[in-house]
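Progress narrative, work stream C.
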Amino acid sequence: MAEAKLMPAEENILRHNPAAHSQDIDPNETKEWLDSLDYIIESKGGERVRYLLSALENRAHSRGVDLPFAANTPYINTIHVNQQPAYPGNREFERRIKSVIRWNAMAMVTRANRDFSGLGGHISSYASAATLYEVAFNHFFRGRSSGYEGDQVYFQGHASPGIYARAFVEGRLSEKNLENFRRELQDEKGLSSYPHPWLMPDFWEFPTVSMGLGPICSIYQARFNRYMQDRGIKKTDGTRVWAFLGDGECDEPETLGAISLAAREGLNNLTWVINCNLQRLDGPVRGNGKIIQELEAVFRGAGWNVVKVIWGSDWDPLLEADQSGLLLKRMEEVVDGQYQKYVVMPGSYIREHFFGKYPELLELVKNYSDERLEKMVRGGHDPEKVYSAYKAAVECTSKPTVILAKTVKGYGLGEAGEGRNVTHNQKKLNEKELAEFRTRFSIPISDEEVVKAPFYRPPEGSAEMKYLVKRREALGGFMPTRPTTCPTMEVPSLDDYQEFLGDSGGKELSTTMGFVRLLSKLVKDKNIGKNIVPIVPDESRTFGMEGMFRQIGIYAHGGQLYEPVDSDQLMFYKEAKDGQILEEGITEAGSMSSFIAAGNSYCQHGINMVPFFIYYSMFGFQRVGDLIWAAADTRAKGFMLGGTAGRTTLNGEGLQHQDGHSHLNAIAFPTVRSFDPAFAYETTVLIFDGMKKMYVDGETAIYYITIGNENYAMPAMPEGAEEGIVRGIYKFNSLDASKGKTRVQLFGSGPILRCVLDAQQILADKYNISSDVWSVTSYTELRRDAHACQRWNMLHPLETPRKSYLEEVMEGVQGPFIASSDNVRALPEQIRDYLPGSMLVLGTDGMGRSETREALRRHFEIDSASVVIATLYQLFREGKVDAKKVAKAIKDLDYNPEKVDPYFA
């Protein structure tokens, strides 16, 4: 027959059926069934077996027999030894190369902490994963031989010493680089602690050490690669995404939170390798359970192809001889905490406590010495088992694959920490341990030299070096690498979009609607339209984007397989294989992962894609700030639109949704340029500035722009305001009181600028106070510029002092300065020291709540009345008005002076 065998996992399930451990009341009948099954396998093949078993299961269900759900396969390797492909490499050369890399990784961390206490570093994670990486480097990872092609690999952060050590052996890093591990401010720059593209932009591609972010980003990167191909932008079917992670990392919600997406999308271009060394920082990952079995059930249930690599080749003869199934039963009985105990105990202990439970198992190993039992390795340390798993993964054409590889944490460290709870914190080895490590892995270093933990590279021209270079050349070159040449692109001119700078003709609209109208035109632009990537969680209709569904479609690799319920509507929900919108569902983390993938397309694919990620502003920096930080680390470019922004502007949704602090959080992100525009033309100017700076000038930045849902008439852009909008401040208008000589400066941002304008009128009409109103689009950009000038002046006292943009604009301006916004007070207070007068700030400190906008703005003391009272009070403090005038204003404006402080409400 054409197909005479089952798939490896299926054959193993049949060969080692857990049901065999139950009481068999009729062994003869069981034998008849099994003999029949064997006959069908041999005569008609696996497909027929699958059909018959399915038919039997359906009949059993129909007759009322409740069959148990089997989420797990037996606790053995998925790929049977008889189905292992031949290993294609030179095992001896690869072993020697791997041993050298192990040594250098260990030596790098040991020397750093011996010479500079407290630097830290990790020895044990790479020690456990060395075989997993080396098999991939020698046979699977494809480099960037043609510039932007090749595989994308998310290296486990704690294993970075091993990746550095390989790059050193390859000649890509110097001995001085390794000496300066975690010392990045030296003349010859050292190596970053973990994968950080920001710090090593020509080496690392993805930051991964913040647990869980690498896994979720790898899923969306694989999906984005397919998005690029489905939209006809670039052929990416030759690129595979690999993600290496630890079993303990799977406790992070981000790690497993999107695995169903990978299966649903059929991402056969994605492979995860989970290093199951059974141990995290403090102890076992699942001391009383089995993490590999737990993860297998989770991934199989989600629809992944699961390949388990548990036992090394030493175990194959025992499993083959295990006709009773007792060995498998024992393997499944033992919990992970006990498996860790076996690692640190001698062979006699393993014989007594593992095999000794059943006399038949002792008989099975009667010819094995204690030393042999002690040295039987786990599957993750066996190159043949690992190669078989990788080959199965890349040949799986229908779904993503996860490889669950069982290893020993700290493998090779011996008494220094192999398999012990202290392993994760192991930073250095003593003289005896160094010598033992050297001997175990046959490193050609003398007894006299070994104490110094010298780095070692095989001689040029040696067989090992020739082999290493040849293997990487065959696979497309060394890796990891990251292209540093940034492509540019032609972007539209603001002159071509003048209609977005004019007034709204008296019609009320929100800044969100203004942005959506602009985006709708941009996606049609002949120069940039196809490169725009709209990204949104399940809020498109909230943001008024449903009109874009039909215009450009929602991306779905499989197209739309149903007729949507709103198909009779103009703006129906339209999915398409070449859809442009990434409508991610209820997942800001997933949406941000897509933003990172799109924002790095310039270096990953050599094509500038322009992501516009619009979301509830409250659920950005507060909720997925770690992913935003990762985006900055990856040097991502694009636009983040904080929709429904403002503590009082989104009035009905209440405390959980009302954002007044995202701009404060954004201060900490160096590449994020945050803006809080009041009018649609400001948003337009900022977007065009961002497109030019990021995609023409090549600057690395993320533009964060908050947009609101409050409708009001939009004015036209004042002449000459463009620079001020981008730099952070410009004068919107001036109002001179008929009799007043006192003048104040009023700052407003976002929708609260309108409250400031109302206050301006009240101050002129009722209190004879003149004022200038300034639209402050970015306090943070003003502060950064002012601080940069201040720092330069401090360090160049003999030079002509520089002036910041804020100082230039405010030169000759008369204070005091009153600022009001829908953000916390700390945001405007950033610029207090750089103003030529006193400053009083109003803001929305405190918890939000549901109410009308008017009531909320009075509650938080940012409405027009609050601005008037604050202005009069500040003038009183400066001796320019009488205290009675302030008290009268409080009464006239119906203001309750005993109202609760909103910060504590």
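Work stream C, second folded protein:
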Amino acid sequence: MDHHTRSEPEQLQPEQLQSAPGTEQTARARMTRRRWVAAVSVGSTLLAAAGFAASQVIKSPAQAAADTKPPAADVLTAPVERRVLKETVVLRGTVAAGQSVTVAPVASGGEGAAEPVVTKLPVNAGDTIRAGQLLLEVSGRPVFVLKGELPVYRDLKPGAKGDDVAQLQNALRNLGHGTGNDPSGTFRAGTKSALQAFYAGLGYDPRPAVDDDGEAVKAAEQGVRSAERALEQAQSAADAAAPSPSGTPADGEDGTDTGGGGGGDSEARRAVEWAQEDLQTARQNLTDAQAAAGPMLPAGEVVFLPGFPARVDSVSGAVGARVTAGVMTVSAGRLVVRGYLQERQKGLVRAGQRVEILAERSGTTVPGKVRSVSETLDEGQEQDGTSEDGSDGERAPAATQGYPVVVEPDKPLDRALAGQEVRLTVEAGSTDGKALVVPVTAVSVGSDGKSAVTVVAADGTQRRVQVRAGTQGDGYVAVVPLGTGRLAPGALVVTGIRQAPGGGA
């Protein structure tokens, strides 16, 4: 046996352990120590975890204040500019002719006439119309359009005089119907003949000025005939009472004076004179009756427009509909733009202000000026709230009330724009030359009621400069520094505060 070989430790069998009490006690002590070490290790781990959890929930007052303070602020600035500032009012408008007329005819009814109804409607909205054209028919009577500046306000009958008669005569002559030797502005035989021919061209008979089936003229003619007979009788009596050819009065056969001493002759002469006067009166009555007779132009059958071609803007009536209001709207003359100002805008716009007219479909602009601003609120105007490109723009919402405004372009607008919507930019105010300009949000009012701006220096320091605000427009305001305050173009002024993302400790 090799004595240098290391022997394996000898394993004790259970029965051997029982025969060795000291060895068993030693093993048990070792196991107890191991258990305590494990328990201490687990407890330390648990305490560490509890401490970490507590550190996430329980904070010091300083830490809590740091965590709850607002994020760091970022100042928004804008540069001071020096330029001309214009105050503008933007609104929507519709291109229309200079004169717009609502056609609301009233049929002249006779005996047994019913409520007027539309019996013919040959035009549609958007149609172009010419002078002398039939617009519609009401209860069998025509309504047509003629050229003229004056609106119709009365029936024009034979014998009438005035500027409106002269307007009618000019309109008839322009259509090829001469008025003869009638003086301008006097409705006589030549004008009657022209009016008769015009109505015949439309296919209608004109209304008679005297609706008596000619009885007045007939009576006057009968009066002339009666006066003529009376004169003949008076003349015959006077001839019988005249002296005989021998120079003596016509006596009886016995030579007695049957004439009452010549008195009968003078009475006969007076009878002739009276008969002549009666005939003259009868003839004048006939002249007057004939002058009053003939065609007339009822006010309800004509619409005067200043120029042609004209346009039918809208048609609200229909054949068979009762005429209770306007049937259609027609317009003529130079194109203008009609819009509506809201209450907040009305005080800024007045006649004479410059306007930019933008036709958005074509992109063309035309300068113009405000011709008129109504003082009366139009409560019936409805306006779409969406622009043609689908955006909201400046168009007023539906059913918006407004004050009518008319804009006149400096040069004629394309006739194709009639009926289209355009954008109007009214120059409501302007600075007198170049001025210091800042965004409106840069001006603040202090507790003392004074306006000021805050200027930010290159190093971040800030100083307030008291200012006087002036003209506003397009989000900017003209300012003038007051006192010793200094404000120069290019300086940065505070316009707001922006919260920095992820700010805070």
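The mean pLDDT is 81. No further action is required on this item.
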